Amino acid sequence: MTGMSRRTLLRSMTAAGTAAAVPGLLTACSTGSGGGDTSNAGKKLAAWPAYRATAGAQPDLAPTDEGVQPGYTSYPADLTRSVARTPGDGSTVRVMSVTFGTPPKGAAQNQYWRAVEKALGVTIEYTVVPTDDYQKKMATVMAGDPESLPDIISMFSGFVLPREAQFVQRRAQDLTPYLSGDAVSDYPNLAGIPTHAWRDMGRVGGRIYGVPLERPLPGSTLWVNQGLLTDAGMKEGWTAQDFAAVAGKATRGKTYGLGAATGSLFGNAVHSAAHNAPIGWAADKDGTFRPNYTDERFKAAIAYQAQLRKNGSYHPDAASMGTPELLTLFLNGTVASMQNGFGAYQTLYPDSEGLLTPAPALPYSVDGTPGGIVAARRSFGYTILKKAGKERIQLLLRILDYLAAPFGTEEWELVHYGVEGTHFTRGKDNSPQYTELGEVENVTNLPFRYLAEGPQVLFVPGRPEAVRAVHSWQRKVVPLAIRDASYGLQSETNTKQGTTLKAGVEDTITSVIAGRAPMSAYDDAVKKWRAQGGDRMAEEYAEELAANA
Questions:
Q1: Would the pTM count as exceeding 0.85?
Q2: Is 384 helix (H, G, I), strand (E, B) or coil?
Q3: Angle 16-20-63 (CA atoms, 0-180°, nearest 5)?
Q4: b/e per residue 62-75 (b: at least 16 CB within 10 A)
Q5: 15 pLDDT band (50/70/90 cuts)?
Q6: By the 8 A CB rule, do 267 and 257 touch?
Q7: What single DSSP character describes residue 182?
Q8: CATH of domain 6-16+220-374+491-548
Q9: Potential cystine with 371: which of 181, 274, 392, 535 (Cβ 3.0-4.6 Å)?
Q10: How far apart are the C-alpha atoms of 543 and 218, rounded to whole Å?
């Protein structure tokens, strides 16, 4: 089998999104944001933007109300326009976002950059921040002079920034008058962002401060080498015992049944969901919040993983390798599975062509109870605007409205593929295929998609069988999704201390699974977490939930 290019790695990480292992979360910074009350409890809550589905291409595979995405087995033959006029006024707009790609060429040498600028009607000064630098950069921005803020900032949800809500409340434009309720109708594509994305983005102090980046319901997913694991006995309706047997059988020589990246707790999210443990926080019928840490099913998942590790089914570097290395080992056949974001399908299928057939695994059952899957935060992040006058804010929102055009429109194609004949050509099925220039000048390296984006759909250029496969998988597992009840809610304790407290527990989980610490060490870590802030978080989330009811 051949290796994997850096470009392929970066594209795969981009599609995977936040469910890929995220290195070192920021633990401290000074936002200059003061101690404002960001809670929604006791506040008048702004109405969510009134949802109005945008007119895009009709899907080949139907969505469901539960969360199965629309699927497109071919690219739309006739694209529509969703924006009637050029959004901008010729001014300069400064933007900043994270990127999973490589630093782009400047606007003067970048035809993709210039084409998007022309369509938007503004000059874009884009600060592209690599993921490794994002924490440090955001700490500087949040602590700096408010006058020096970019006009548009994408707040990436893959990192927890201390006092983030306070920073947003104090420094960002309150968008409630522009987007709440029917006001969003001035921006039809923003009105087409489903309510679940706004809900999981959440309010701050009862107000709307951002525009969310909508994402699918499935989150962390076990991606498997279908051939290897089918030969090892993988089947629909498998049990925890079956899974362990398959992982063991797939492990031989220099091949391992299970791969994992640092920070993923040996792929704990998939296993805790299969054990039907809460994902993050659970809310009981009486509104009481319970953390996953105190749930016996979560402890059972840790013990199960520890046994898998003891049996030798994990790659020996599972607690220390980075996501790029894990992706390489998956595509070259060294590991037969890996936990990654569901969105990884967009690149795993084309990148693995000729090497293997990837597939999202169905959850195994535990003690006769069907397993669940991880429900993702439905907002990959959100975009905030620097405070400005009404006309300036309306201009910036028109820009985001253009970028949020739905699949099947001319605007979507430009943002995602560039200029036909320059950045892409048409395949036999009419789908865009990158040219050599398009492999360099694209939405990965210059990520306009992280400023605003339309509703996500299932589509892989030239691979209708892949779309059918993931759509069929979604129909089976979406009803089993387990959602973190804290999504979209504010907890001041979590904002201030959550990252540090969580790191202490997760370091212990990794040590227990790796065999370096007993389960009693986990119990001690959870007691410490509760005493130092966990119990207070539960109280604050309960107050928030009651306020948002």
A1: yes
A2: strand
A3: 40
A4: ebeeebbbbbbbbb
A5: low
A6: no
A7: G
A8: 3.40.190.10
A9: 274
A10: 27
Whole-angstrom Cα distance, residue 93 to residue 123?
6
Distance CA 345, CA 12 (A): 8
Angstrom distance (rounded) from CA 260 to CA 327: 10
Sheet holding 358-360, edge to edge: 337-341, 220-225, 358-360
What span, in angstroms and rounded, lies between the C-alpha atoms of 489 and 544? 6
Could you tell me the two tokens for 303?
């013990």
E strand spans, 367-449: 373-374, 379-385, 424-426, 432-434
Looking up tokens 């782009």 gives: 104
Closest CA to 408 of 89, 95, 82, 87: 82
Instruction: Write out the two tokens for 81.
Output: 């326009």
Sign of CA dihedral 416, 129, 325, 371: negative
Residue 417 contacts residue 435 (beta carbons within 8 Å): no
- Contact predicate 128/99, CB 8 Å: yes
**Residues 6 or more apart in contact with residue 145 via CB below 8 angstroms:** none
Q: What are phi and psi of 521, to 5 degrees?
A: -65, -35
3-12, 120-129, 211-220, 461-470: the lowest-pLDDT one: 3-12
| Whole-number Å distance between alpha carbons of 103 and 442 | 11
How do residues 237-280 score in pLDDT, each as one tens digit?
Answer: 999 999 999 999 999 999 999 999 999 999 999 999 999 999 99
Tens-digit pLDDT profile for residues 419-438: 999 999 999 889 999 999 99
Residue 14, pLDDT above cutoff 60: no
Identical fold between 6-16+220-374+491-548 and 31-216+379-459? yes
Lookup result for tokens 């099947």:
408
Residue 45, pLDDT above cutoff 50: yes
3-state DSSP assignment of residue 231: helix
Residue environment code for 80-100, b if the CB has 16+ CB neighbours within 10 A, otherwise e: bebbeeebbeeeebbbbbbbb
Instruction: Give the pair of three-digit tokens for residue 388.
Output: 């400005």
User: Residue 21 — φ and ψ, nearest 5°?
Assistant: -60, 130
Furthest-apart CA pair in the chain: how many Å? 65
- 31-216+379-459 topology per CATH: D-Maltodextrin-Binding Protein; domain 2 (3.40.190)
Of 341, 287, 347, the closest CA to residue 157 belongs to: 341
| 3-class SS shares of the chain: helix, strand, coil, % to 5 | 40, 15, 45
Cα→Cα distances 370→99, 298, 366, 479, 480, Å: 37, 15, 7, 11, 8
Where in the chain are the domains? 6-16+220-374+491-548, 31-216+379-459
Cβ proximity of 454 and 215 under 8 Å = no
pLDDT computed for residue 507 by the predictor = 97
Q: How far apart are CA 5 and CA 22, in angstroms?
A: 21
